[in-house]
Amino acid sequence: MPQTRIKFCGLTRSEDVRLAVELGVDFIGLVFAPRSPRRLLLGQARELRELVPEEICVVALAMDNDAGEVAAIVGHVRPDLLQFHGGEDDAFCAGFGLRYYKAIAMGGDSEGAHAAIARYPSASGFLFDGHAAGEQGGSGQRFDWRRMPSLGDRPCLLAGGLDAGNVGLAIRAARPWGVDVSSGIEAAPGVKDGEKMRRFVEAVRVADSLHAQGAHPA
């Protein structure tokens, strides 16, 4: 049975990383965006990265960081994947020797969001988030999940306002390759809530099981 991939983003504490690993998530996101309350220093991020086994993908998230900053993140933290949320162009995103995902803002102009995909031919995948262009991710803003593009050959993650109570509905509406959650599993920005983390993973697995049986999540 195909499983919806799960990405926990904005982790800042070792205990949250350890629980994410225990729960078997597919991606752990570490944030380096300058304006984010979840932003990590390189030393902090390196310590968290060491807690993640090889089978889980470590994602470094940047938003209009300069090239020197991104290169330092790659060199010190050794992420498996980069994720860009700003106005970076395809050449910039592809210039660090790693695969990258590009976040597409689905709030506001949906036609512009769809057109943006074509500007990133080198992207290994996309993340569709609920905020408007130029705004920070992790804000908990939702969009109409039925508008999420399906690209077929490239992974697409659904983000924005997801939590254990609605992720089943989101999976039903969009059938995404993966789901990304940050604020929906938090007690405060960057401080994850263990029970919310567990419930989110359980809700995704229930939705997958119901889909495989031809049923629908409530």
Please characterize this protein's 3D structure.
This protein has 218 residues and is α/β, with parallel strands linked by helices. The chain has a single domain, classed as TIM Barrel (Alpha-Beta Barrel), CATH 3.20.20. It is 31% helix and 22% strand. The chain has an 8-stranded parallel beta barrel, surrounded by 4 helices. Strands 9-10 form a two-stranded antiparallel ribbon. The two termini are 20 Å apart.
Which tags fit this structure?
218 residues, two-stranded antiparallel sheet, TIM Barrel, globular, 8-stranded parallel beta barrel, alpha/beta, 10 strands, 22% strand
Question: What is the element layout, followed by pairings?
Answer:
Blueprint: E1 5-9, H1 14-23, E2 27-31, H2 42-49, E3 57-62, H3 67-77, E4 81-84, H4 90-93, E5 99-107, H5 110-117, E6 125-132, E7 156-158, H6 167-174, E8 178-181, E9 186-188, E10 191-192, H7 194-212
